[in-house]
Amino acid sequence: MTFVAAAVCPHPPLLVPEVGRGEQVHARAAAVDAVRRLCAARPDRIVVVGDAPAETRYGPESAGSLAGFGVDLHVPLGPPAAGPPAAAAPSLPLSLTVGAWLLASAGWSGDRTALGVPAGHSPRQAAGLGERLVAQVRRGERLALLVMGDGSARRTLKAPGGLDERAAAFDAAAAAALAGPDPAALLDLDPELAAELLAAGRASWQVLAGALLAATRDDTPTEAWSSELIYDDAPYGVGYLVAVWNRGARNVVGSPAELPPGVWRTDVAGLAALRCGSVDAPGVLLLPGYAASKEDFLPIMPAVAAAGFAATALDQRGQHESPGPDEIAAYSLEAFADDVHRVIDALGPGGTGGVHLVGHSFGGLVARAAVIADPGRIRTLTLLSSGPAGIVGRRQAALRTIRLLLERGGPAAVWAALHAVERPRPAPTADFLRRRFFAHNQTALMAIAQHLLDTPDRVADLAETARGAGLPVLVAHGESDDGWPAAVQADMARRLAARYEVLPGARHDPAADAPDALVAALVGFWRSPGLPVRRPAPAGAEASSGVG
Predict the structure, then answer these.
(1) Which of 136, 272, 384, 506 has the fewest CB atoms within 10 Å, measured from its CB?
(2) pTM, whole model, 2 decimals?
């Protein structure tokens, strides 16, 4: 694998807070978000590409300065361990200086270099630079590009170059190409027109186009790349565009549909995750249940983000795409709870202020353990279709059978049994469910099943911890939940002095059955956790073929 991801960002000095002096710069959050997503692609090396007076390659010992903008700020390209810039090291131009600041802001600690691209390079010359970047990647290395470039600087009368009626159309063409991704359209950007419009990003964007064409010519077709344009505006009469390109990000849940707009795949503290929403928004951490995964929360994540929250859905240790050890002792509830706290620490601005923690089914048992261990970084707790102790009823019997089958025949025996009684599903969904099930660590499946069977009642411990920390708690479930009976969950809410909601039209998985009702309940609770809520009487439970 070679070229794996790219982020495109503008480079106004105002992006750096010390230069902006408190001015609200909306492109800043978008740019930092894009670079964090770039880092989440797990590259081995990031090359920062930006306009420069001459074609120049910069090592990590290089640095830039923002002294020309009234701030005595030294910005090294490399991490602090790289030391002060060498006397002979070339000074970074503005575009690469801002790029270096973005890498530092995103917390990138890996290898990085930079490439300065003259504004006078033709599309062919610029694309050639991108092709060479890809050709020079070592076997097995993962390369990512951070491409710095402004659009036209002639969008309004007060713009640096004054108004040019052609500027808006030029920027729109660039935005459409970045949203594609469409490398051919990027190469069609006219260098003479770009020069007249003072569009500093044209040549750098065309380096990116050359890199993608080289990568797709040699291995992955262009259609296997996904792209998202996450910012497009001209607040100072200058076109600012922020975009993210990722290789292999389509169809990650095995269905014909792509991930919903604004949702991206990443890992957090070594665990596979899906994220959605501004990283500076209040954080929400979503924990799935047994034999489940982060993808189960896709129906609610965009709406949670639209309500002003940053949602992160996890594969817990040993689930789906998260690694897990083969020792049963590694799957204690305490170990799962420790993972939760490591993830909170790693979430950045949305996590450092604490998160709204949501645990579904088994995820609720983990969330409870995390709160009892340390409630300090948790804003609210939601126990969704979860219970006070081990699961009961039909799902209890199903789990005992699954546990026995796992011991005697492994996952294949369990899958055959489940498939025999499962309702038919569309082929792409069925394929994903099969791949997901066999991706789970077998030891994790056995350990989690045992937790669901014999976890003791710790409601009193949770109530004492929540009361002492002033932690609001919500207990919510579907009106026909066939996991823990409604009466059991209602009694748990009473013992916790918790808010209690029954979600109409849902069974054990409200995110799939009633996503709108679930989002409304969650967002209402997060915004006003102290308000009482009407508690509808639960309907009679109807059993499903699932296990929890």
Answers:
(1) 136
(2) 0.56
